[in-house]
Amino acid sequence: SFADNDLSNGGGIFYSGKVNEIHGPSESGKTMVALAVAAQEIRGDRHVIMIDFEDDGRSIVNRLRYVFGLDREQIVKRFHYFRPDVAFSEKALEHIRKVEGASMCIIDAVTEGMSIAQLDGRNENEVAHWYNTFPKKLADLGIGVVLVDHTPQDNNQRQIGSQHKKSAVDGVSYTAEPI
Q1: Kind plus residue range of the DSSP H or E element containing 154
Q2: DSSP H or E run through 42
Q3: pTM of the predicted model as reported, rounded to 2 decimal places
Q4: How many angstroms separate the CA atoms of 32 and 55, rounded?
Q5: Residues forming beta bridges with residue 48, ordered by sequence position
């Protein structure tokens, strides 16, 4: 599920220690793809962190259990769920550093995360600030960061504030499309 080096994805769909992303319209399966990879990581005895600005823990845990077949013990031991209502901080980074064996961090969703930090996703300096002080700091820990981002309703190929966000992603970028 994750590549361990910069030269090849080694069969993984995301890069370790990089900022990766999935973007697409609402209900296109972005979070489900991220959770499918999370379930693989958890089955491999690795820890997964989810920082969720959009959903609730019950819904996410139910998906891990009933869609991806994880049992309660696996989830309790290896899945670390956060539903923040404040901007990411050094205190939050220290808390995440304590999660030993974390291979993946899902951040769902970019626009909501920036909004909580009172930043505008269309402002290039604010986009750069958010990426540098949040997802890139997590990737610097060696964690594969997977961002979930929305596209505008009229353009399923381009996420909101896309040029600035695109340049901040140093892993892979996928477009999800509903069928």
Answers
A1: none
A2: helix 30-43
A3: 0.90
A4: 12
A5: 79, 104
